[in-house]
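Protein modeling request. Please complete all fields; requests missing the sequence field cannot be processed.
Requester role: graduate student
Desired output: 3D structure, token encoding
Chains: 1
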Amino acid sequence: MSTDPVERFLAALDPRHREAVGARPRAEQEALAAAWERELEADDELDTLDELSPPAAEAEAARRVLDREAG
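Delivered output (71 residues):
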């Protein structure tokens, strides 16, 4: 498993979003990855999901970050 936050964030995205975010400048990807990491750390609901399925928690956090950015 990669330790690079951008790679981990991209891996958590669904394929459609992964391609779109992967085409963005690296600085934007890093900002989104940082927001994703903050979401994972801050949300207690994701902690519970992480215990059951870490990939599902990462995917949900990634979805939330993209939803906030789009909104």
